[in-house]
Amino acid sequence: MGISTSTYYYRPKISRAERDKRDADLRDKIEHVQGEYSCYGYRTIKHQLERTQGIVVNAKKLLRIMRKHNLFRQIKHGFIKTTDSDHAHPVYPNLIKGKEITDINQVYVSDITYIRILTGFVFLAVILDVFSRRVIGWALSKRIDHSLTLEALKMAIEQRKPKPGVIHHSDRGVQYACKEYVSELKNNGFQISMSSKGNPYHNAYAESFMKTIKNEEVYLWEYESFTDVIDSVPRFIEEVYNRKRVHSGIKYLPPVEFEAMLKNNEQKKELGQVILKISD
Question: What was the pLDDT predicted at 88?
Fold first, then answer.
């Protein structure tokens, strides 16, 4: 074309007022996303804006605006022990350390957390398919015992109907090591895997989900009763986490949509080769 490179890339400068207006518009859109997903970081917000509103924005600009307006949410921290590994039941070796996963129904991970109510605690047990990050089994109870974890496991089995050989990974807690739970695993052909004692990073995918549900659901409400929890938590798991919330590890898609693409050969090509390697 006979023009210089600088001319080709030249963009007219905008006024300060126009820039402030654009920043304010973008701030509104960021806050709208955070209204639904309060703990999204700037990278995930970027993909969410592109995905749901067709807005393409530079990540550095997003970061600048979020810093300027203090849009990074302060996370509450708390702890109550839910793992009792001081028991006489057999424990099993860690089978997922360094393992490569290429599809769903290869590795399930499980965990328990607590939810505060006025009169005490409610306990939540979940099972996730590691490859798609989808919650495939969950249960709520006022008691933290093997009945809680068994209910979540039975839901996962009913939903997935897995073939023998799936690895079930958990911590060494008595709820997972007890005879009743182990028998259910063996009767359904699972390989049993457990984290090293006192090392939560060996169950990082389940821990990550628990952090998400605490920060984006539990900490936003003050549950007064068990009924309040029953009304809210299942909705978050099934409608928000599984079907709407995007995940950076699965091409910024929700788990249900990611699994649907895996089943469609044409759409699977769009994803490319997805391999998840669990950290050592």
Answer: 65
Which residues are CB-contacts of 31 (< 8 A; sequence separation ≥ 6)? 71
- The answer to whether 57 and 49 have CB atoms below 8 angstroms apart is yes
Question: Within 10 Å of residue 222's Cβ, how many Cβ atoms?
Answer: 10
Tens of pLDDT, residues 132-142: 999 999 999 99
Q: What are phi and psi of 76, to 5 degrees?
A: -75, 145
**Average pLDDT over the chain, rounded to an integer:** 84
Q: Which domains are delineated in the chain?
A: 5-68 (no CATH), 100-277 (3.30.420.10)
- Cα–Cα distance, 168 to 147 (Å, whole number): 17
Place of tokens 């499980």: 110
Instruction: Tell me how far apart the alpha carbons of residues 56 and 157 are, in angstroms, rounded to a whole number.
Output: 41
Q: What is the 3-state secondary structure (H, E, C) of the chain?
A: CCCCHHHHHCCCCCCHHHHHHHHHHHHHHHHHHHHHCCCCCHHHHHHHHHHHHCCCCCHHHHHHHHHHCCCCCCCCCCCCCCCCCCCCCCCCCCCCCCCEECCCCCEEEEEEEEEEECCEEEEEEEEEECCCCEEEEEEEECCCCHHHHHHHHHHHHHHHCCCCCCEEEECCCHHHHCHHHHHHHHHCCCEEEECCCCCHHHHHHHHHHHHHHHHHCHHHCCCCCHHHHHHHHHHHHHHHHCCCCCEHHHCCECHHHHHHHHHCHHHHHHHCCCCEECCC
Question: Does pLDDT of 1 surpass 90?
Answer: no
Structure confidence at residue 40 (pLDDT): 73
The model carries a pTM of 0.71
The CA-atom distances, in angstroms, between 167 and each of 104, 129, 139 are 11, 10, 20
